[in-house]
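Q: Structure tokens for this one, please.
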Amino acid sequence: MDVSYEFKRLDEITDHFSTPKDACQTYDAVIEFLKEASYLHNELVG
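A: Here is the predicted structure, written as tokens:
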């Protein structure tokens, strides 16, 4: 299953996985997890 498109869209939508200063801890954690998953995906798939 190729999720490259989804990670690309998440990167665009979140402005490169940045979070607002007033975001809750859960949102921060989810964005950080997605950022790491995207990085690992790019490392493995290219």
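A few notes: The mean pLDDT is 96. The chain has one domain: 4-45.
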